[in-house]
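Quick one, tokens below. Sequence please?
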């Protein structure tokens, strides 16, 4: 016997259509990156799209956030991964900026068991595997993501955010919507 869906039955908690799972909304723009939860009136995270590049020796340190571009430092460079017409020009920096906008105010790092977090073990017995360390923390593996784009974005510009959200961040569901349609 096949199972049929009924309008009289509430959706399961694991389904994305119910209110139990809140979707994240990310609106990257030229001046600010706005992020929040679906159904709320205002975004909880508003981060400037501009970032600071601070040279330190042979390395360059990237600093994101509200105070990154306002702190007077010698040899500081100011950058923006998005062009004035809304196209992303630097995907690596845009990915880091978007992840900062999401993780700084919307999601937290996952709490670990204090018995297995390394604090209660003897340091001489610790063996650390470096394989898979990059994949341990995925900021969006519990929340679906709605992301906006400009109306004149090309096909290649649409593929990269999908790849970032699903492969890098581990989002269980993703929707890329044009900002003009959402504002109407």
């Amino acid at each position: 016997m096949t199972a049929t869906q009924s309008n009289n039955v509430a959706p399961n908690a694991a389904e994305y259509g119910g209110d139990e799972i809140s979707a994240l909304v990310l609106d990257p723009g030229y001046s600010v990156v706005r992020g929040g939860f679906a159904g709320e009136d205002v975004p909880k995270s508003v981060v400037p799209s501009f970032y600071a590049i601070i040279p330190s020796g042979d390395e360059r340190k990237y600093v994101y956030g509200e105070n990154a571009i306002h702190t007077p430092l010698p040899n500081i460079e100011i950058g923006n991964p998005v062009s004035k017409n809304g196209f992303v020009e630097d995907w690596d920096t845009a990915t880091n900026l978007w992840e900062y906008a999401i993780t700084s105010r919307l999601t937290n790092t996952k709490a670990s068991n204090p018995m297995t977090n390394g604090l209660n073990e003897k340091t001489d017995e610790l063996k650390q595997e470096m394989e898979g360390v990059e994949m341990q923390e995925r900021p969006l593996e519990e929340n679906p993501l709605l992301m906006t784009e400009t109306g004149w974005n090309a096909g290649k510009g649409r593929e990269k955010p999908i790849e970032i959200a699903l492969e890098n961040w581990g989002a269980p569901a993703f929707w890329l919507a044009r900002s003009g349609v959402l504002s109407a």
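The CA atoms of residues 148 and 183 lie 11 Å apart. The first helix runs from residue 91 to 105.
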